[in-house]
Amino acid sequence: MADSDASPKAPARKAKPGATKTRVAEGASAEGAAAKTVRKPAGRGADISAGAGAPKTRTPKTGSVSIKATKTSIAKTRASKAAAPAKAGAGVAVATRRKAEAAQPPIPYSPDAIAEIFRRFAVQRPHPTSELEHVNTFTLLVAVVLSAQMTDAGVNRATRGLFARASTPQAMAALGEDEIRQAIKTIGFFRTKAKNVQRLSEMLRDEHGGEVPRSREALEKLPGVGRKTANVIMNTAFGEETLAVDTHILRIGNRIKIAPGKTPEAVEEGFLRIIPEGFLRHAHHWLILHGRFVCKARKPDCEHCIIADLCQADEKWCDQPAPLIALPDAPPGPQPLPPGATRPGG
Predict the structure, then answer these.
(1) How far is CA 148 from CA 118, 143, 176, 286, in A?
(2) If we measure between CA atoms, which residue out of 305, 306, 288 comes closest to residue 251?
(3) How many CB atoms lie within 10 A of CB 279?
(4) Taking the mean position of all CA atoms in its chain, how far away is CA 21?
(5) Using CA atoms, how far apart are residues 309 and 292, in angstroms rounded to an integer?
(6) CA distances in angstroms from 49 to 9, 14, 20, 59, 291, listed in the order given
(7) Catalytic residues
(8) Is the dihedral of CA 147, 148, 154, 159 positive or negative?
(9) Alpha-carbon distance values, 173 to 46, 145, 161 (Å)
(10) Which ranges constitute the DSSP H helices of 104-189?
(11) pLDDT in tens for each of the 346 residues of the chain?
């Protein structure tokens, strides 16, 4: 006989002030009962019904269905919370970029003045190219990798013999790191650079069919190749409108206040914002050669500058622009100098 039949129903007792009433909810699912205790003050005259002194229980109408719905709700909540930081981070990045752009001081050039600057560069050098000697896209890539913290003239002296022996990824990989190192030992950091040349040659041979890839992503995966090198290859070899910022362009951007910035990336962004359409294809070489031969690091050679009247540099000491004369085209290697300008040593 069940206990509830054996025991008489106990009379209701008056609850004392401050007493609590406990309810236990039990869910009859395959995963077990889920107990929930809710404590709340019992009002005056509240009843506590007990079967043999046991607390009153209540069973949910839907067992496993209710738990499944709860799990789904929890999963959605977690996914929403996980997505929230990403959305917030993207919003912060956009806000930071806009704030930086707004904080960028205005440059002291009108759009017409900027267009005139690049028009004169285009007249002076209609078809500029790199001063790094190369015979194909692969040798250009190797030369640019070797040029880090080196003069172009110094790199050319080392690569003439190297490229005579190996001018393809297959031949360079077969040459081996030791032979490459011996050939470029006059170049700074030649050990690390020899290793990079060997490894990138093998990657080009094995992963790209012996061809230099055109995309930035693929280029920057090669050993020794960063954003600047990728920009040079994309611009010089493939005709893309990119702007590689070296020490000369970094100096010009800040000195003449046309694209000020503390980093190469900031100066690159500054130039890309202002260079008029139709001039970006050769802007990289125009700016490098102008910085190398005229707007030199120690002291600008203003009397031989074709934009002296437009320049806003504090160091400028001459306002009269040099005669605008078209220079002859030249193959990759040393480029012609403006009249009166001198080539820096090295």
Answers:
(1) 27, 9, 21, 20
(2) 288
(3) 17
(4) 62
(5) 19
(6) 9, 11, 13, 16, 95
(7) 228, 246
(8) negative
(9) 91, 16, 16
(10) 111-124, 137-146, 152-165, 169-175, 177-183
(11) 444 443 444 444 444 444 444 343 333 343 443 334 444 444 444 443 334 444 444 544 545 555 555 666 666 666 665 555 545 555 665 565 555 555 667 999 999 999 999 999 999 999 999 999 999 999 999 999 999 999 999 999 999 999 999 999 999 999 999 999 999 999 999 999 999 999 999 999 999 999 999 999 999 999 999 999 999 999 999 999 999 999 999 999 999 999 999 999 999 999 999 999 999 999 999 999 999 999 999 999 999 999 999 999 999 999 999 999 999 999 999 999 999 999 886 4
Domain boundaries, the chain: 111-304
The size of the chain, in residues, is 346
Q: How far is CA 332 from CA 176, 270, 286, 339, in A?
A: 26, 28, 14, 20
C-alpha dihedral, 160 to 162 to 168 to 174, nearest 10°: 170
| CATH superfamily ID and name for 111-304 | Hypothetical protein; domain 2 (1.10.340.30)
The pair of three-digit structure tokens given for residue 138, joined into one six-digit string = 């692969």
